[in-house]
Design goal:
Family (chains A, B, C, D, E, F): Belongs to the creatininase superfamily.
InterPro entries (chains A, B, C, D, E, F): Creatininase-like_sf (IPR024087), Creatininase/forma_Hydrolase (IPR003785)
Order of helices and strands of chain A: EHEHEHEHEHHEHHH
Strand content of chain A: 5-15%
Shape of chain A: globular
Keywords (chains A, B, C, D, E, F): Hydrolase, Metal-binding, Zinc
Structural class of chain A: alpha/beta
Number of domains of chain A: 1
CATH architecture of chain A: 3-Layer(aba) Sandwich
Organism (chains A, B, C, D, E, F): Siminovitchia sediminis
Largest interface: A-B, 49 and 49 residues
Oligomer: homohexamer
Cofactor (chains A, B, C, D, E, F): Zn(2+)
Chain lengths: 260, 260, 260, 260, 260, 260
Amino acid sequence: MNCFELAKMTWEEVEASLEKVRLAIIPVGAHEQHGPHMVESCDAVLAEKMAVKLGERLFPYVLIAPTVNMGVSLHHMNFPGTISLKPTTLIALLKDMVSSLYHHGIRQFLFLNSHGGNQSTLDVAVNMIKEEMDVELFYAKTTSSAKKAINKNVKSTLFGHSCEREVSEAFYLAPELIRIEKLQKGDIQEAGRWRQLRPGCALQGFYHYEEMTANGCIGDAQLANYEKGRQIVEEALDTLSSELIKVLKIEEDSIIRSNR
Amino acid sequence: MNCFELAKMTWEEVEASLEKVRLAIIPVGAHEQHGPHMVESCDAVLAEKMAVKLGERLFPYVLIAPTVNMGVSLHHMNFPGTISLKPTTLIALLKDMVSSLYHHGIRQFLFLNSHGGNQSTLDVAVNMIKEEMDVELFYAKTTSSAKKAINKNVKSTLFGHSCEREVSEAFYLAPELIRIEKLQKGDIQEAGRWRQLRPGCALQGFYHYEEMTANGCIGDAQLANYEKGRQIVEEALDTLSSELIKVLKIEEDSIIRSNR
Amino acid sequence: MNCFELAKMTWEEVEASLEKVRLAIIPVGAHEQHGPHMVESCDAVLAEKMAVKLGERLFPYVLIAPTVNMGVSLHHMNFPGTISLKPTTLIALLKDMVSSLYHHGIRQFLFLNSHGGNQSTLDVAVNMIKEEMDVELFYAKTTSSAKKAINKNVKSTLFGHSCEREVSEAFYLAPELIRIEKLQKGDIQEAGRWRQLRPGCALQGFYHYEEMTANGCIGDAQLANYEKGRQIVEEALDTLSSELIKVLKIEEDSIIRSNR
Amino acid sequence: MNCFELAKMTWEEVEASLEKVRLAIIPVGAHEQHGPHMVESCDAVLAEKMAVKLGERLFPYVLIAPTVNMGVSLHHMNFPGTISLKPTTLIALLKDMVSSLYHHGIRQFLFLNSHGGNQSTLDVAVNMIKEEMDVELFYAKTTSSAKKAINKNVKSTLFGHSCEREVSEAFYLAPELIRIEKLQKGDIQEAGRWRQLRPGCALQGFYHYEEMTANGCIGDAQLANYEKGRQIVEEALDTLSSELIKVLKIEEDSIIRSNR
Amino acid sequence: MNCFELAKMTWEEVEASLEKVRLAIIPVGAHEQHGPHMVESCDAVLAEKMAVKLGERLFPYVLIAPTVNMGVSLHHMNFPGTISLKPTTLIALLKDMVSSLYHHGIRQFLFLNSHGGNQSTLDVAVNMIKEEMDVELFYAKTTSSAKKAINKNVKSTLFGHSCEREVSEAFYLAPELIRIEKLQKGDIQEAGRWRQLRPGCALQGFYHYEEMTANGCIGDAQLANYEKGRQIVEEALDTLSSELIKVLKIEEDSIIRSNR
Amino acid sequence: MNCFELAKMTWEEVEASLEKVRLAIIPVGAHEQHGPHMVESCDAVLAEKMAVKLGERLFPYVLIAPTVNMGVSLHHMNFPGTISLKPTTLIALLKDMVSSLYHHGIRQFLFLNSHGGNQSTLDVAVNMIKEEMDVELFYAKTTSSAKKAINKNVKSTLFGHSCEREVSEAFYLAPELIRIEKLQKGDIQEAGRWRQLRPGCALQGFYHYEEMTANGCIGDAQLANYEKGRQIVEEALDTLSSELIKVLKIEEDSIIRSNR
């Protein structure tokens, strides 16, 4: 065993792991449309894969909790198959998970999130759980810290959903998510409020995803490939693991010796 | 494609499937200790496997929703690794799922549940959702309708959790859940309130699982095997699919022709 | 006084009783249609009568709380007069009751329930209250433990609601609930989903009671009589009191000496 | 039948009654200490008795719903036996009742309340239910409109809880609530914040009842008698029924002819 | 500084003040129509002004929290501009405020309320907060304790909303709230249920304000003036401060010496 | 009147304004420590001032709702005087406001927020309200769109709370918020987790503000002045009003003609 995945452990194995484990990583995904070329569990699968890779790098100090396989996806609801949780449902779920793992002795938590639409809810969850429990709570987007690799590899102007970047990550982490024969550019809508409301704009607000793209994806997924994905994922893992080492207050050597 | 698994479909594929699909099966599992010989995701995995097999039998009339991979497991909380949702959290989650799928046009739902501890919450969920939405709601234990096969195959007096029956099911459906070298009998506690509170007793009530069994399992898992599992699972699938055919108001032939 | 009924006691009497009392029995009924031959408070009255009789047998160790006179009856809502609580309302009510009695020093509780439609909600209530309070919680159907007497006396194929069994219980416990001149068989509907969804069937689910019976009752209430009721009730009381004696950890003699 | 009491009716009788019934009276009581000389169900019983008497006077235009037999009694919690609902629980219960009766066609409701501690919660309930349902909602204290009779008959300076007035009402309506041999004056505490916080004072606020009276009652219950109770109750019924006739928009004659 | 207004203090100043402060006054207003001659923030402004004046009289023992500038105003919703909070929202807000100030060491609280429609909700809030926190909670209408001055000065039969009394208070405390050129009598509706439901009547219940007055005010605001307002406000301040001195358990001299 | 401020209008004036008004601006602030040199209502006052200035620029098409004067400030709770709302409370409050204004005919809303700690909650609020009401919802930080002016004027490395930028804004908009004689640099803590968790870092998470700065402010407020504030505020107003003109779908000329 080179990663503590709760889903694959017996209680005796968990009990043994808890002698070393300090932090639980809770993978948080979504179940939502990802254009014509990715399946709807995309975010859930990528979050889980990233969590396990991160768990390997931080073995034996972290434990991977079960994956939260649905998230806040109201803006994708008009594409068939999308399932959206109310933010309060997601918060309740995370609170129950933290509370259960707290019972087993864990006091540090990372919500490792692959879906932009969950970020605000995670921030609120952190506030609400912190008010009630004496725990340390973090959250992170799976690969957004891979700034260099993204800068170098992603050529599309728009990216962030079933795009050049995400499809590349999937090529590296979970190619079964991709319908290669369907890879296509986002069918971006010229008109519409969405241009006013993108991240960084003066106004933020709710818009349905189909106002922005008729086929549900953005950027040019045809430019995606395994190598781009590898670079992005590995840089993100480097950054996240080095940040978590500080949070865990452990010596980097103690990890390398045991795991790599 | 011989089964509509939402997690493995793009939105265009979902859109096409909705021309035929009438009912969504929502697999409901748990994340909890399963003794020294089964991993903690056992119920989630078995519910999902059963749902897919049922989806194959009822193709193209049903769709398999993402799996609810945690459930109500308060009674297992004293075994390391168990995660328990509050019943209200599970109900909120199911309600959001039903509500999202309703938006896509589905009006019939089956919660296919592998964990006894969820049954009451599912019954309450059915009541609460029914009060608010015009849908048809069913729930079922994955294999408890396999009465003949269970009767014939299961020799242990006690069964129901990481037992002869459940391990057999796993041998057939998901052997990766089993630690074969660890298979053992339940370490049943002689004393204790649990004997008074088993299903069918005059009193029902809450007891911690360790009051009943020190190693977290019951019956004799060493008697489990693939063939027992096959018979139990297949009888359950026969029964469930024939019941669902009535509910779907379809002709059995229409399924056989398309799928088997 | 040979039974501690909270509704009939002053605070000074309650204070004195609490020197002996260990467990509170909370009678849980319903307010719902019971066919043309029983009044709608049937379940509330029977639960209360049973609770008092049980309280007499376990005097001075138990105390009878006020009766919960409405329950979860959504499936009966299409018959005039039925009142249904949301499951969350019933849980809130029980939690406030347990919490208040906890304040007075009681740590063991039995929800004595006469209405099948409440069972799941009671099970969920037990889970939710247990998670927040250090108490011992039990629930029981009023007479379902009278297996022998039911087997021997009840001739109707279907029973469970304003039926041969329930009317018999009322003849013995509260004949004022019965309109003798109206006693009739259930007007069972041949068609309909209900046959698929009865207890023990592969599928469970919600159906309106009028889908099963046009007059709101089942079985043949014309076969009901006082003696059948006496045998059923007394066997149930025997069973329940002997189970509670174990839970109370008292000597049976200590009761007999004080009360019978 | 000269009063439509839902608890005593079959569904067929309810169905027939609904041809005339316009308004439902929901009796709201409490379960709380009433000094050494009244039992704890006092408020619940008196509310129910008053409701029935009012129902007789307004027959066949009103229907008496099941009694809410517990209320908001936090201030009495330090006397053994008191059960207190959270205000949100009481509101949920009332909302479910109104909503169920709305389903049966009723659009006017009176919460007939015997317990001062419920008044604010009833007012809030009225606001909250009104925001969601198109109904007409009223609430009233059972006898506080009997201003003349109270003025004439009640000699105690303080009254309002297990006092000269309330015990008199019980002598008339339900003498079984009284421990005649225990009748006594309230054991009023000289010091304490309560004097500052009585109705009509500049400040309102929470105080425990034992801060005001050591034995849990106020005024001089020894001055209570049947005749005082009769005058108070009958004046209240006169007032309430004449107010309700206006609300019902019926002719007084139509009642007299049918009922008295 | 002769009054501790939290809104106007830095944290260092708050820290210093907390050496003396015992009680926090939370001004509670509303945002609702006040007829053609007062602006909609009327209640919020008057509550704040009263709180500050009271804070000056009780300096340095009390602290004025930020003003709750919206309240429960469902009955005014049909007049343009009114904003109404659900009672549960107002309670949540007050609970968060009390809880935050509790964290800073305060244990006594006064909700100083200028809007009749909030009274019941405040009473419920007091009950609900008291059940969870060990604090002392009071509430008061801003000027209703000025019984003599009101009796002497107010000539209108009806008063209580944008009336002779309230406009007078505004002349003294915040004349900018008044449209002097628009001062007018309430346009009282002869017919309608409201007469039955006024404070003190046998029935209480919900009615829309326009059922009572077509222009949204009552009484004769043309009779209002500064001097009437001064007398009412000053008597109320006298009464409230003398009541609070008892509650604070301080010597009156200690205030006079420091502040006046 | 050159700006529709709800707090300063009578219902008749609101009614007239609604002929033109399309969008409501809800100023959202906070009540929290702002270092030794700003008072705790800082965010509430600045949000309100910005809203009014924006309302003037968009007259007569927008209306300014009452200010939400407290927000989510858990991270500041260890500085005396801070009041923090639970995110769910803030969402409930905003929902009630939107719902009330919807009743008056408004369908577009901007939450104009001055406090970073509210942003996630506002995003969640937008999602939750959108799911229930057919409205258009936007939110914006008051001045963060003034990118050029901030870039040009702000010299401090860190800014964002009682800093060079915010104090400059206050010099221009509300100098009474500033204790000029107390202006000082943030007392930044070298050690601590906060450096890992700043906006843009790989990890996000909760930290108490005192972990970052001992005096509660950051950057160098001594560099703040009126002119910097003017440039920042005016650029933000330019940007926001031009964005809102698009959202309002009005001609810019129609505003200029009527207002400027």
